[in-house]
User: Fold these one by one.
Assistant:
Number 1:
Amino acid sequence: MNTVIHKAGDRGHANHGWLNAHHSFSFAGYYDPKKEQFGTLRVLNDDIVQAGYGFGMHPHNNMEIVTIPLRGALKHKDSSGGEGVIKTGDVQIMSAGSGIMHSEHATADEDVNLFQIWVFPKKVNIEPRYDQRTFDESDRENKWQIVVSPEEAHHALWINQDAYFSLGNFDTTTSYQLNKEGNGVYLMVIEGEIEIDGNVLTNRDAIGITEAKAFEIKVLQAAKLLVVEVPMK
């Protein structure tokens, strides 16, 4: 098993007042040649957007974009006709495909904290699409809840890539079994404290794992975890 550690304090950081952003990978004004991507995982931004503020209409293409609100709610609108509000407990995916415009704004009554995650697609120039779903958070207590998957059998949001996103809330030692051979895993500690392969990780620390079919996670303090499993090529 090979590992790479990304500590929370080493992330890129930009505070624009209305937007307080932390970047796990090179993004916008932040560039680190050692953190350009992890396999097909290109972006993992941890954003706090001030109530009533957000991103106006802007373009994307050929990227799978997953948004996971951790606190608050986010209003969304795109040129494919997708429109709605995503809140804590929801997950949203947008296939930018051949090209799409979209906007995102925090609701007027509270700030929103969210993860926005970009994954390179398996097929390019597909028809743009948008989907979102509310997941029962009780279904991730001491087990993995798959929220994004290329397989319909998982009852998750479909992604145009051999990638799997899972959330779990653990208070006891657990493990993770890869869904597809050859994939790598990028695990983010949302909160809590864990140990993997001798590495102790706490709030917003992350670990990239390759060349492993499964691995053990020791839970040192009750932990909320996000796993993004992606092809490495």
Note: The first strand starts at residue 2 and ends at 6.
Number 2:
Amino acid sequence: MTRVTQAHIDARKEDILDAAMGMFARKGVAGTTMQEIAGEAHLSAGAIYRYYPSKEDLLRAVCGVTVDHVREMFAQAAASAHSPLEAIDEVGRSAWSEFKSEGCQEHLILNLEATLAAARQLKELGAERREMLNAIIEMLGRLIRQAQAAEQIDDGVDSRALASLLLACHLGSGLLTIELEDDVDSDAILRVVTQMLHRLAPVANGDAGRT
């Protein structure tokens, strides 16, 4: 009997996940069947259930892919930056550059579909979605606290609130990109967000009375 390797299993799961993400973006989570995903992945209808027993399991895997991608983005930013604030800037550039990448529209729609599915199925998916968003906020918050320790951001600023605001700016820009497409200047939005962030630097004593 031929032994199935872990590499084969991992590759098959990735094929299924890629097929599911494409179908969810094109037809919506509710409008996509497991049989359609199996066909897109060139599998039998029964075979897919050995890897992902339900659409909810596939959506949980989508959340995992997102977190892994963000972790890699933060790691690359930390490795190339010379300061915590520069690392935040680099994360912003990387995140906003995705609005111009190939397949951006499909990715943004997939994220919106996952958000709506989690909101409608709180018991099945809500916890995973919250965990994903909280993980991203914590990664940003950690960099913000490091920037505060380096006196690059005022230590009176709530780091979690600021991290949530930056994430909200990115998610909101994505929504506008879906609806307005080329009418959205994502570069201009990023410049304003970056300017706002840099103006949170501590005020020197000599500048305290200036406006």
Note: The helical segments are 6-27, 34-40, 55-80, 84-97, 104-120, 122-149, 159-180, 186-198.
Number 3:
Amino acid sequence: MRIFLALVFCALAMPASAQVADTHLIVITGVEADAADGQQFHKWATTVIDAAATRGGVVADNIIYLSDKPDADPARIKGRPTRENVEKTFSDVASRVKPNDEVFILLIGHGSFDGRGAAFNLPGPDLMAADYAKLLDKFPAQRVVFVNTSSSSGGFLQPLAGPGRTIVTATKTGGEHNDTLFPEYFVEAFTSEAADKNADGRVSVLEAFEYAKTKVTQAYQQKGNLLTEHAALDDGQDGKFADTLFLASPKARAASIAAVADPALRALLEQKQALEDQVAALKLRKAAMDPAQYDQALEKLLIDLAQKTRAIQQLEGKK
């Protein structure tokens, strides 16, 4: 009991930033059809990486990019996107993550489906959906976001689904094998205010998914083409879990709030963050609550959050 109490005391005495979860990003671009194809994959990949770093506060050590394309910053690319390097990357990240950390995986490229299983095409031997399922098993205590933006990616949904995971695919089946528009808009979501539907200054995985899905449908309609890709999301909770996940580091966010010099502003920011966490937790409990009680609780939290946001804006405006 004395040891237990000592451990609890130490945990409480630790700085808040040391206890906050962190985010790890893995971006993989696969085989290209031609040089222009590869340049587009690289542009999307670096856009996401830059958004994670600049807007999300994800540190460079927590970002791994596997690509065959040369980059203006050679240090950004950690290796070729071969089967061996992909497997090593998952193992390396698994050795460093803490419980409740977020692991965000993004695949950009081409996919295939042989009637039995789907694959993401790599230089050399491909990795099948079943292979990625085994790799995700390395993260049993983490929150996982796995996004496959390729053709035939729908074949990844069922093999990868599981507790604590959000799986996003550009197609709903392995049979949708045409090149996809989804990656362009999914990437765009993390740099667009239009994707932030609840105007909280952050774009959740669910918001990015819905933004991209809507944009894809509009693009096909504008060209008068039949929709050949139907994006899908599976988080086991009808999107409520995906709405609590972000391409951002909670640890960096907590540290930035702690660094605010004005104690009044810092207190407001901390209260706002606490309310956002309460909203996320409430959404996850929705299925087990009476609908009227849920709506009442959510309304109160959202009103409190709006008032807190306004108070922050007013205080910042005065300065």
Note: The longest strand covers residues 23-29.
Number 4:
Amino acid sequence: MSEVYIGIDVGSKTCAAAVRSKGGDIQMEREFPTTESDLVEFVSGLDGEVSVLFEEGELAGWMYRLLLPHAESVEACDPKRNAWVYKEKPKGDPVDAKKLSELLRMGSYKVVYHTDDENMATFKIVVQHHQQMVKNTTRIKNQIKSRLRQQGVIITGTGVYTKDGRHEAIARVNNAPVQHVLLQVFRLLDDAERQRDKAKRLMVRESGAFSAIGRLKKIPGVATIGAARFFAYVQDPSRFNVSELCKYSRLAVVGRESGGNPLGPEHLNKDGNGTLKDVSRKAFDGAMRTKGPNGIKEFYRRSLQRTGDRTNARLNTQRKILAVMLAIMRDGVEYSDDRVNGKGA
């Protein structure tokens, strides 16, 4: 059976597709509306072992799950790693589609993971929605303090967001129109907080469908939000080992070299997923605050004793937290302190 390589440049209204043979020849080019029926009809209508490649974007997850039953393989690729498509001229939908088909044929691309599980994909959207609601609330709070500073009213802490605190702050502003502006922004804050709380309740409710989240919550310092965020972003634990997960979570130490000589100090890799780094930091802080001993506290103490550096010890502990979370999610096991300290710090 012949092998067929399809590159699709996806737009919100139309798609451009190019079909390439195993030998590299363009067999077909087509443009069609970005609809479920048109995409399925085009891909399923081709003979041979069909492979599909498109760039990561808002439609990528939907397209992946839509086309997977109709092709031998379907993948999304990282556009930042595709300089040939992303930067080189001339650019255009048909040109990009042909380049994507060639990258697919040559295997010269970086895959962006998508799950084929609709429930998992939906849960990630729920988690991301909660995160966005939290960001919206924080943005409005920052806006309130900024507006007050513009009037020479400097306020620290969170008391300004309470009912009494906001009235006291507004009373210190002598400009009547600005007082009205502040009242409107405070009303926005009230609404944002209500929506944030609704988003949290939705996430907590939906997390009950996944037993792994319940096991993750038993780790010291890991509450429902942290467990849900980890589960939603990892999705398939078999796609990571510990070092890969730490790298993906922006906790890998990297440095540049030339001729075996370092070029500047080592630093944490900034590529990857900041959410998982934040999950590990919040879990660390939570574990440190818990009453009584736990495995994470002990791991940190031993790491601090060995390194003599609080930052390094904390980062080591964050990596260990991620490793434990990965094992619990992957192996279906329960948390115990031995899983943290059983193999040394």
Note: The mean pLDDT is 91.
